[in-house]
Amino acid sequence: MGSVIGALYAAGKSPEVLEELVKTTDWQKMMDVKVPKTGFLQGKIVEEHLRKLLWNKPFHRLKIPFQVVAYNLTKKKEVIFSAGDVAEAVRASISIPGVFSPAHIKRDEYIDGAVVNPTPYDVVRKMGAEVVIAVDLFPKKSSMQGPLLQKSSLIQDFEEKFVEEELREVKKLIFPEAWPAFLRKIFIRLFDKLLFPARVLRVMTGKELPPIGKVMLNTTNILINNLARERLKHAEIEIKITPEFEGLSWADFDKADTFIALGEKAMTKELPKLKKMMGKRL
User: What is the pTM of this model?
Assistant: First the structure.
């Protein structure tokens, strides 16, 4: 989310516009679910939506200097995007392992840069920032505890779409396209009436996400949280913002007002220090 907000702000969108976007976006429409091979979401819809919001701008046309961190799976190294298509770079940066399929750029695959650099204060420092403001979003509990994947409206929508996609694939296997069209149509209609979607959805979405999805998410979260915690201990930063999000999940997109209020509360505590530092530099 950091790369998404950063890109939109650097492109010229005000905080008020960003707040409105979060509140009015139909997040269910952003989910292009597929039966997973490398991720549950293809990410094409998100990328195209971002491209529209960014007015298809490349990095050099942004109003504020901006860089994006991702991890190149093909070459096994951290990558800092600072040129080219911004939407493409952000798509690479948001590719949470197990959720999004890796982004394909030329011949390489990219995933979320948080797996190697969840708090990229060093990136903005190298860009020339004199005052670095870091936001610590990571749980303060034991390093052995990762955040659980809680239920939310977005997660439920995701589960339903996943089940629907699975059933579509099942129908392709049971009723191959090589069958006569009229016969295939009859059997698919019978299949839909008996199994799709209400009955199966009630059964399957009453459970948690597929085990592989939950294991991958929780494992990734634990590793990233521990890495972020250690990096922040030794970070060369001037201001650290630490909001408290107890009881909230990353998937609670419908609670934007709550997140914004908590963020403002945490930032307000640090404003006097920031103003003092900025005053010395003017």
Answer: 0.70
